[in-house]
Predict the structure.
Amino acid sequence: MKTRQTLIVILMLVIASVLVTACALAATEAPATEVPSEASACPTATSDTKLLTNTENGYCLLYPAEAVSNMPGWVVINPISAPGDLPGDAWLYVQVQDATGKTAAQFVDEQVAALGEGFNISTAEVAVDGEQGVMVDGLPGQDSNRQVFVVHNGRLYNLVFSPWFPNAAEPTPLENLYTMVIDTFHFLP
């Protein structure tokens, strides 16, 4: 029991350290919510939505007004206004990297092949701002997740939605976030 408590304290310290580092980096970088120019064609926020613009990584999107986005690349729906990963939370993390000449399908195929047999992974094509992407359910991770891979202008955009419960009886906040993000995601020029 004492070992478990010690591990929990260590995990909490590591999470706090990561959050402090992320906040410090965010404070020194250009804000990710800069107002885009008219030519960028970002969607317009409403009373029910907020606009997230990340000029460094070349995208903008809408997310629900009850969510927060105070770390670069993250959108979080959290029913309790305290840090932590609580059950029922909805998370979106957008990771951008060099595509190294590969397509989204090639990235997905490589990840699935590296896992080997025994995983229940499903894929489907999805359009993201006019680009062909691949939606993947069942990739292993800390939490169940749905990932979308799309390549635009030589960059791989990996959108990770978590926790994903594909057989939920009712739509979850994450499903609503997923639909909103996919429908409004826009690549900046």
